[in-house]
Write a structure and sequence with these properties.
Blueprint lengths: L10 E5 L11 E3 L3 E2 L6 E3 L8 E4 L12 E8 L8 E7 L9 E6 L5 E8 L5 E7 L9 E8 L2 E6 L2 E6 L14 E7 L11 E10 L1
Antiparallel strand pairs: 1-15, 2-5, 3-4, 4-15, 5-14, 6-11, 6-15, 7-8, 7-14, 8-9, 9-10, 11-12, 12-13
Length: about 210
C-alpha cells in the first residue's frame, strides 16, 4: 500500500514564493521566463526551439542543499509532449552525475521520475519510475524525500515510488548537494505545450 507524506516530521528551512521574480532560483536562461504574475513563474520554450529555465546556482559540491524533502508545485500546460520538468541538478554542475528528476514527460503525457548517476565507464546511467495516474495539466505538488540510502517520491502527498538503489550522498556525507531547477526544453510541439507554471517550490528537512 502506498504511504502518505507526513509533513509534521519535517521543518521548513526555505520556501520560495516567486513574489519577487525567480528569487533563490537566480540562475536563469532563455527567453521563455515570465515573472509578470506575483507568486508564480511561467517557463516555456519557443517556436524556434530555444529552451528556458531557472535554478539555484550550482557552484560546487556544497552548493544547493543536502538531504531533505524537496517540493515543486506546478502544472504543465497542454501536458502531452516532452518539454517541462522539475529536478535536482548536481551541485558541482558536472554531468553525468547525481541528477534527480522529480517529474518530466514522455510523448503522450506519461509523467515519470528518473535517477541519474555516473557509470564506472563515465557514461550516464539511469533508472526511471512512472508516475501513473497523474494529470500533469492540473496543479500538483511533486515531492522527493532524499535521505541517506533512500529516495521516496510523492505526488500530492501520496507515495508513488521508493528505492534504495543508486541513492547519492550529499556533501556532508562525502558526495555533493543538489540544486533545485525548473525548466522547459524544446519538445515535440514547442509552440503549444511547453509552459510550466511553478509556484512555491520549497524544501524541508528534519
Amino acid at each position: 500500500m502506498a504511504g502518505t507524506l507526513d509533513l509534521t516530521q519535517y521543518t521548513t528551512v526555505w520556501d520560495e514564493s516567486f513574489n519577487a521574480g525567480t528569487g533563490m532560483l537566480s540562475r536563469d536562461w532563455g527567453p521563455g521566463i515570465d515573472t509578470s504574475v506575483a507568486g508564480q513563474i511561467t517557463i516555456s520554450s519557443t517556436p524556434d526551439n530555444q529552451d528556458s529555465g531557472t535554478m539555484v546556482p550550482p557552484t560546487g559540491s556544497a552548493a544547493g542543499y543536502g538531504y531533505g524533502l524537496f517540493s515543486f508545485t506546478l502544472s504543465m500546460a497542454q501536458g502531452d509532449a516532452p518539454g517541462p520538468y522539475a529536478l535536482l541538478w548536481p551541485g558541482t554542475d558536472v554531468w553525468p552525475g547525481p541528477e534527480l528528476d522529480l517529474v518530466e514527460l514522455q510523448p503522450g503525457g506519461q509523467a515519470y521520475s528518473t535517477i541519474h548517476w555516473k557509470g564506472a565507464d563515465g557514461s550516464n546511467q539511469f533508472q526511471s519510475y512512472n508516475l501513473d495516474g497523474v494529470d500533469v495539466k492540473q496543479t500538483h505538488t511533486y515531492s522527493l524525500d532524499w535521505q541517506a540510502g533512500r529516495l521516496t517520491m510523492y505526488v500530492d502527498g501520496t507515495q508513488m515510488w521508493t528505492t534504495t538503489d543508486h541513492v547519492p550522498a550529499d556533501a556532508a556525507h562525502g558526495g555533493e548537494n543538489e540544486a533545485p531547477e525548473s525548466a522547459c526544453r524544446p519538445g515535440g510541439r514547442p509552440a503549444r505545450s511547453m509552459a510550466a507554471a511553478t509556484t512555491t517550490p520549497s524544501r524541508s528537512t528534519t
